[in-house]
Amino acid sequence: MNPEVVRTSNFVTDAATFILEQARFALAERGEFRLALSGGNTPRPVYARFGEIARDLPWERVRFTFGDERCVPPNDSKSNFLMAQESFFAPFAIPDKSILRLRGELDPPLAAQEYEDALALLATQRGEKIYRHDLILLGMGDDGHTASLFPGTIALEEQVRRVMANYVPKLDSWRLTMTFPLLNQARHVLFLVGSGKDEKLIEQVLAGDVQFPASRVRPPNGQLTWMIDA
Ligand code: 6PG
Questions:
Q1: Which domains does the chain have, with CATH numbers?
Q2: 139 Cβ closer than 6 Å to some ligand 1 atom
Q3: Does ligand 1 come within 6 angstroms of the Cβ of 42?
Q4: What pLDDT, on the 0 to 100 scale, is given for residue 2?
Q5: Rounded to an integer, what distance in angstroms lies between the CA atom of residue 81 and that of residue 206?
Q6: Residue 33 forms beta bridges with which residues?
Q7: Could you say which of 36, 152, 199, 203 is the most buried, measured as most Cβ atoms within 10 Å of its Cβ?
Q8: Is the CB of 144 within 6 Å of ligand 1?
């Protein structure tokens, strides 16, 4: 299925509204909303706006996971958790039990295994073989990476594990990331692409150029939307 592409000059509000609509639908259909958060910079204002417009949501029935995390403590300025904490979790008093944090402070393979096991337990508790997100938020880097699936890295080829520690040579650092098997299990994936991203890269990724990891997120039994800040 071809991705839906939305170009908007009202990016932050449109993105937040999209997430809220997905939340209401999932809560009505299944009584819970499973949302995976993206890191980086683009999502920060979107999370803040989402908190503002979604105050009435039953947060105890929402489960927040993270598509990836840097291998740093949760109070490190590079932490994706810290970005979500500052922009959304803390200001809107999201209950801790609704948040499943990727523990970047741990030894990377241990942190990945811990997260994999936690998601597997949640899936098993609901009679599922693999945890299925209602919505996964993702971004795209200037090299076409998404989550922490960078070009030329080991995690790109993983077909079994759902969460991996992934060494990224260009950053000379470890990352924790969901893998394509888990990402592509989602009911819906929303790419949030901020202004200033290379238009040619966007077109190549949307055309399915597999040299760019972002192009390989195509949930076979889900929907894919690219929201681009026009
Ligand atoms: C991260 C993100 C990463 C991000 C892209 C785009 O940990 O950095 O998960 O995949 O989404 O690098 O980042 P921006 O949205 O800030 O451009």
A1: 4-229 (3.40.50.1360)
A2: yes
A3: yes
A4: 83
A5: 28
A6: 62
A7: 36
A8: no
